[in-house]
Write a structure and sequence with these properties.
This protein is of the alpha/beta class. It has helices spanning 136-149, 166-172, 189-195, 210-217, 278-281, 300-305, 311-321, and strands spanning 36-44, 47-52, 55-61, 75-80, 90-95, 101-105, 113-118, 122-128, 152-158, 178-181, 199-203, 243-246, 253-256. The strands form 3 sheets. It has a 6-stranded mixed β-sheet with strand order 10-9-8-11-13-12. Strands 1-2-3-5-4 form a 5-stranded mixed beta barrel.
Amino acid sequence: MRRYGKHTDEDDIRHRPSRRGSRPRTRIRPKHEDAAEGLVLTVDRGRITCLVDNRRITAMKARELGRKGVVVGDLVALVGDLSGAKDTLARVVRVEDRTSVLRRTADDDDPFERVIVANADQLAIVTALADPEPRPRMIDRCLVAAYDAGMEPLLVLTKSDLAPAAPLLETYAPLGVRTVAVHHHEEPDAVRELLSGRVSVFVGHSGVGKTTLVNALVPANQRATGVVNAVTGRGRHTTTSALALPLPDSDGWVIDTPGVRSFGLHHIDPSRVIHAFPELEAGTEGCPRACSHDERDCALDAWVAAGHADPARLDSLRRLLATRERHEGD
């Protein structure tokens, strides 16, 4: 072992370089004022595909973003190689403020939120009328998530050639939700009209025909589809990541998402659901503090009895508020 005397300023003393490099620490982050704006089309295993000036750019999240996630629908700022050429990689350095966020949890007792998409203004809840059978509780949960996110819901009923749509439509008529039925062998013109000029995210169980419908709406981009298991009556996951697609001959966008088996609402504040019922919201002024709107002292009963709102609307509100207490298969 080398020994040094009292003169420790000798020129031959070796200094170990810092593992973190010699760059001084600073709280000042670059502003990236010259960054290009892009739209996130899909996120897959850390790689982010963005649309920049009609070019598809592959990017990764910059370290300076920290834990901030990037999801489909985000408007982001990018730097680096923006040519879109093969094997090039840009960096996402900023995520712009979101106008809406659609979230879910794995189950009602799971506190971990999963952001599905950002900046969508319409939630298309896709359910089959048969094969597999409709699950109203799942529809109710998606409606609650849509109202919480400030998105307009649209109920899309597929496979109308296998079963009539009237019974399910009657169930949701009091909610005032827009609905459209789709025949398997017909062009989805009615759906296309409702999507025009909107950013719509498609959500539904596996096997309900969600991706098949997206393929019909955007023929140039064919995604893999599956079949329903004859034993379990459930579909198989064929779509593995969300993908935003522009609608041809329209300024609208459709976002296809993987099929879900459950839609947890742990993150939902029940007090926000009432905003989707404006004719009832005014009647809550007489409710006790932290009223669940389903208790003896709730002022909504007297409000409806006085003729200010349809009793069916109050029943629908209470049904939606109760969805967090039920399992999807109920």
